[in-house]
Amino acid sequence: MAVLVVSIWLLLDRDVAQHMIELDARLQEFYVTVYILLAVGIVMSLLGFMGCCGALRKSKCLLIAVKQYIEKSMYETVLSHYGRNNPYTETFDTIQRGLKCCGVKSYTDWLQSYYSTKAEDLPELGVGAGNVGRVPLSCCSDLGLREHDVNCGVT
Questions:
Q1: Spatial distance between the Cα atoms of 24 and 105, rounded to a whole number of angstroms
Q2: What's the sign of the alpha-carbon dihedral 55, 101, 33, 19?
Q3: What backbone phi and psi angles, to 5 degrees, belong to 128?
């Protein structure tokens, strides 16, 4: 909800927008970013509302639909956007570190991803050196990072 409110405020308050653009010439795409924030805020609000309705009504169908939508979106991010698009990469890394998880369901989600199969310039930090695939550094636990700071996850 906060994302939605902030994006609406940024759209309506022209002084803030003008000040931001004056601060840095690279912010010419300011309004594009604000519209993206607005769309994300709307989607998040709708998903939150549907999740609350499903929980209140104890509607398994609605809760399953919300869960499947979120899983599908996250899996698409893993497959197509991670390693290509920096905001997606940073966001997914933050989620994985915060939840102490790897992938949407497991580390195997990464095996068919762009990151694992096409991103040759990215370092091998993953499931195995035998062309099995790789996972991002954010999949590694604190213990794994302490023991293998560069090759965490390599077997």
A1: 40
A2: positive
A3: 180, 155
Question: 85 vs 19, 51, 88, 112, 119, CA distance in Å?
Answer: 27, 28, 6, 17, 12
Residues 82/88, Cβ–Cβ less than 8 Å: yes
User: Which residue stretches of the chain have pLDDT < 50?
Assistant: 125-130, 153-155
How many Cβ atoms are within 10 Å of 50's Cβ, its own excluded? 16
Using N-to-C axis directions, what is the helix angle for 30-56 and 60-76, rounded to 10°?
150
pLDDT digits (tens, 9 = 90+) for 10-45: 777 777 767 766 666 666 677 777 788 888 888 888
Separation between Cα atoms, residue 42 and residue 96, nearest integer Å: 24
